[in-house]
Amino acid sequence: MTPVELSMFQIDAFTDRVFSGNPAAVCPLDTWIPDDAMQAIAAENNLAETAFFASAEDGRGANGDSYDLRWFTPTVEVELCGHATLATAFLIFERFNRHAETLQFQTRSGVLSVARQDGKLFLDFPSYPGTTVDGPAALAAGLGAAPVEVIEGPNYMAVFETEADIAALAPKLELLATLHPRGVIATAPGDAVDFVSRYFAPSFGVPEDSVTGSAHCMLTPYWAKRLGRNKMNARQISARGGALVCEDRGDRVGIGGQAVMYLEGKITV
After folding, report:
1. N or C: at which end does the chain have fewer Cβ atoms within 10 angstroms?
2. d(Cα 93, Cα 269) in Å, to the nearest integer?
3. Are 4 and 33 in contact (CB under 8 A)?
4. pLDDT for 182-233, tens place per residue?
């Protein structure tokens, strides 16, 4: 491949200040570059996700508001990523399409939209309620604590009794990695918010994710049913931490948050 110069932005998602939330790299493309080049860029960035987007090839969407979007961890391309979608939408709203109110993204998980709402950006994502299971032995062993309930869906979701239980987890990542292709969500009622969580995906190159939008596709329907309300405030209590507003919309979920620009520059690959 002939060397090409690309713009790249790093954006902290699900936060209103830098050095918190979940950082994602975002690369706008005029034309798609080879998959192995995108994977190499993501590995070089060594962030949980690097997103690549381009205007939708067949002109879908009014006023150029539709885009093709892909996400890469340092090791693999993934089916769904919330924080990098939020970061991408933030960049487009701020730099490329200031007058749009809603954006559509064509992805490996179907059409996803992001809309401005109540001073935040809301992702419209699929809902994954999951099924209650006993859970594999490696789950409790890997978390170092036995959950009171386990839900299986795209991830394993381990439910605990208190926020302190979640904060105290010291996972054995080599055991959690054996649960591939599922990551592990740990969750409990929050002290100051409706619920808290942490997320581990070592087999995807992400030992602990700072704030995981896609995990809330499982968390939202579970806590909506348990708490008896459709709209909830959540916090992911990783070292960086992040705040989310979650809405149960039946077969969809709304996941709202803010984002801030950290850096912008050029790369040559």
Report:
1. N
2. 26
3. yes
4. 999 999 999 999 999 999 999 999 999 999 999 999 999 999 999 999 999 9
Q: Is residue 260 packed enough to be buried (19+ CB in 10 Å), middle (13-18) or exposed (0-12)?
A: middle
Distance from C-alpha of 100 to C-alpha of 259, rounded to nearest angstrom: 17
**Residue pLDDT, tens place only, 11-22:** 999 999 999 999
- Given 49, 163, 208, 247, the catalytic residue: 49
Q: List CB contacts of 108: < 8 A, sequence separation 6 or more.
A: 70, 77, 79, 80
The confidence score (pLDDT) of residue 63 equals: 46
Q: Which residues contact 146 (CB under 8 A, 6 or more apart)?
A: 140
Pair 38, 70: CB distance under 8 Å: yes
Beta bridge partners, 23, equal: 12
DSSP state for residue 63 in the 8-state scheme: G
Q: How far apart are CA 131 and CA 244, in angstroms?
A: 24
Q: Is the pLDDT of residue 57 over 80?
A: no
Q: Is 161 tagged catalytic? A: no
Helix (H, G, I), strand (E, B) or coil at 259: strand
* CB distance 150 to 131 below 8 Å: no
The dihedral built from the CA positions of residue 69, 71, 76 and 79, taken in this order, carries a sign that is negative
The torsion region of residue 61 among left (phi > 0), alpha (psi -120 to 50) and beta comes to left
